[in-house]
Design a protein that fits this description.
This protein has a single domain, classed as minor pseudopilin epsh fold (3-Layer(bab) Sandwich), CATH 3.55.40.10. It contains one helix and eight strands; from the N terminus they run H-E-E-E-E-E-E-E-E. The model has no long low-confidence stretch (mean pLDDT 83).
Length: 174
């Protein structure tokens, strides 16, 4: 019986990619990235917004804790633009901590009143004399991004909520 004989020169194995295969791969990646880009920019805007809200909340909590610790009035002042703030002891006037506006790019803040200052007393309550800051809204210019609100109550309670949530019973609801 005859057996097939191996050829003297084995078939040459293909190495690498052809130009057409490379162009198809690049086209598929480009379409995928184009579809993901809007979602990614919204995610980044939401991250910056949450970060700014946590920073303002941290500053408010720091001001309240320092007022109790120092047994003195301590004020929290929100910058006119952006999410920057300053915490200072009222008397004697001493700056205790501040956060620059540039740490949360693209985030705008608005207050519920013309005042952008809240003062905590030595008991941790909000000083109710005069006009005081009671609500801070944080937002971004990116469409589809979330909005956060920080409520400051007279008893010293500070709460962050999501304006977009309307489900009754959801603790994130404003």
């Amino acid at each position: 019986m005859l057996t097939p004989r191996a050829s003297a020169s084995p078939a040459r194995a293909a190495l690498g990619f052809t130009l057409i295969e490379l162009m198809v791969t690049v086209a598929v990646l480009a379409v995928g990235l184009a579809l993901a880009a809007p979602s990614l920019s919204t995610q980044i805007a939401n991250y910056r917004l949450r970060s700014a809200a946590e920073g303002v909340l941290g500053g408010l909590n720091f001001a309240r804790a320092e007022a109790v610790r120092r047994n003195s009035n301590v004020s929290f002042t929100l910058d006119a633009s952006g999410a920057g703030w300053t915490v200072a002891q009222v008397s004697p006037a001493t700056t205790l901590q501040s956060r620059a506006n540039g740490e949360s790019p693209g985030v705008a803040t608005t207050s519920s009143t013309a005042s952008r200052v809240v003062t905590f007393t030595s008991t941790g309550l909000v000083d109710s004399s005069g006009v005081r800051l009671s609500q801070i809204d944080l937002s971004t210019a990116v469409s589809g991004a979330e909005t956060r609100r920080i409520d400051i109550f007279g008893g010293g309670l500070i709460r962050v909520c999501n304006v977009a949530i309307s489900t009754v019973g959801d603790p994130r609801r404003c």
